[in-house]
Fold this sequence. Notes:
By secondary structure, the chain is α/β, with parallel strands linked by helices. It contains 2 helices and 4 strands, in the order H-E-E-H-E-E.
Amino acid sequence: MHKQIYIHQDDHSDLTDDELASKVMRYIQYSVLIDTSGLSVMAVGRTVILSGYVSCAAEVGCIEQAAASVIGVHLVENTVEVMQR
């Protein structure tokens, strides 16, 4: 099965909440290149809520910056935590 990556055809601001959340997740996977298996993205209107776990503190900021740069996102709430080893 072919996994869809981020494409610029997604760059319009009239997306549904689920479409925006999917777009943000694809962009994070495309641009940041970190393990997103513990990450969840939800959108409510133009607000994106990031939750879950990543492996280090630097990744928390990277995913927030990536999410904020997506067209259609007006606010990012980041509740992602660093996974304790």
